[in-house]
Amino acid sequence: MTECLIAIVGPTAVGKSRTAIEVALAFGGEIINADSRQVYRYMDIGTNKPTRDERSRVPHHLFDVVSPDENFNLALYRELAVSTIGSVEERRRVPLLVGGSGLYVWTIVENWQIPAALPDAAFRREMEEMARREGGESLHHLLRRVDPVAAAKIAPTNIRRLIRALEIYQATGKPPSEVQGKLAPRFRTKIIGLTMERELLYEAINARVDKMIELGFIDEVKGLIELGYDVDLPSMSGIGYRQIAAYLRGETSLSSAVERIKMETHRFARHQYAWFRLSDPRITWFRADECPQRPLEAIQHFLMAGATGK
Fold first, then answer.
1. Which residues contact 44 (CB under 8 A, 6 or more apart)?
2. Does residue 1 register a pLDDT over 50?
3. Is the pLDDT of residue 310 over 70?
4. What phi, psi does 52 have (nearest 5°)?
5. What is the residue extent of each domain of the chain?
6. DSSP for the chain?
7. CA-to-CA distance for 14 and 20, rounded, in angstroms?
8. Fold classification of 3-113+183-308 (topology level)
9. Which of 62, 67, 95, 236 could pair with 241 in a Cys bridge, judged by C-beta atoms 3.0 to 4.6 Å apart?
10. Could you give the C-alpha distances from 226 to 41, 43, 164, 197, 249, in angstroms and in order?
11. Spatial distance between the Cα atoms of 96 and 202, rounded to a whole number of angstroms
12. Please, are residues 235 and 229 in contact by the beta-carbon 8 Å criterion?
């Protein structure tokens, strides 16, 4: 575990990208995306990707990796991110993992073991139909038969996780609990968390959504649809795209769509704190609206400790 990694996490609109650029400029860093929506091409405004100017100031990686209709999963992300971190280290630069997607962050920080089981659309449809017909308990019963350990950790109501566990078993022939887990940490990691009082965060989210509309988010969604990307694609499930698509179909007003985006983003930000808990001792938290130098001081201490082997 010789490589070092800095992760910058927190809820949407809290200022992670801005802080990451400051850190990168201060310590010779390169930014590695940990946002599950920013991997898709042509989806810039709605996912709040770094601007062209920001990318020109600091190297950015794992943005615009796949088209909106291509499969992209956690196993592929982990492979790309680990390889990229290694390349940044080889250049004697500091890798900065930046984003609010908890799965993406923790799979790298905690070194999750992810089974090589590609999504099977036909199998998923079959399982979804069984769940509709017989209820989630039917899938839970199937999983209990092949992997009681995994079944004990998944509620019968969590259809998505049940299907994924059964999909892993079908693809590998092994119980999911045997092929999933955490290995020894690969990187010496400092996790910086940015937070904000809830009302201030909601104000920041609302301002961001208004700015998205000003920047041309409606045209971005219209363009994706004209390119043939269906709003039911997983890539289009990010907050905003389906709401604006509903407006374009005449199913709702623009003001209603924008208000819905704001409310859904508020809810999403609350959910992100379930992945990045304020009580987690591994995360050093800072108020994003106070003393912007404090995260840089904490990172400097971390890097100096690593250089001296302490």
1. 220
2. no
3. no
4. -60, -40
5. 3-113+183-308, 121-179
6. --EEEEEEE-STTSSHHHHHHHHHHHHTEEEEE--SSTTBTT--TTTTPPPHHHHHHS-EESSS-B-TTS---HHHHHHHHHHHHHHHHHTT-EEEEE-S-HHHHHHHHTTEE-------HHHHHHHHHHHHHH-HHHHHHHHHHH-HHHHHTS-TT-HHHHHHHHHHHHHHSS-HHHH-EE-S--EEEEEEEEE--HHHHHHHHHHHHHHHHHHTHHHHHHHHHHTT--TTSGGGGSTTHHHHHHHHTTSS-HHHHHHHHHHHHHHHHHHHHHHS-TT-TTEEEEETTS-THHHHHHHHHHHHHHHHT-
7. 12
8. Rossmann fold (3.40.50)
9. 236
10. 15, 13, 32, 40, 13
11. 26
12. yes
* Token reading at 200: 């201030």
Q: Which residue has the tokens 């946002």?
A: 35
pTM above 0.90, yes or no: no
Q: What whole-number distance in Å separates Cα of residue 217 and Cα of residue 122?
A: 33
74 close to 117: Cβ distance less than 8 angstroms? no
Q: Which residues partner with 6 through β-bridges? A: 96, 190
Q: How far apart are CA 94 and CA 91, in angstroms?
A: 9
* Residue given tokens 């995360």 in the structure block: 283
φ, ψ (nearest 5 deg) of residue 185: -55, 135
75-120 pLDDT, tens per residue?
899 999 999 999 999 999 999 999 999 999 999 999 998 877 777 8
For domain 121-179, which CATH number applies: 3.30.420.40, 1.50.10.10, 3.30.470.10, 1.10.20.140?
1.10.20.140
Write the single-letter amino acid at 62.
L
Total residue count of the chain as it appears in this document:
310
Q: How many CA atoms, within 13 angstroms, populate the side-chain half-sphere of residue 277?
A: 5
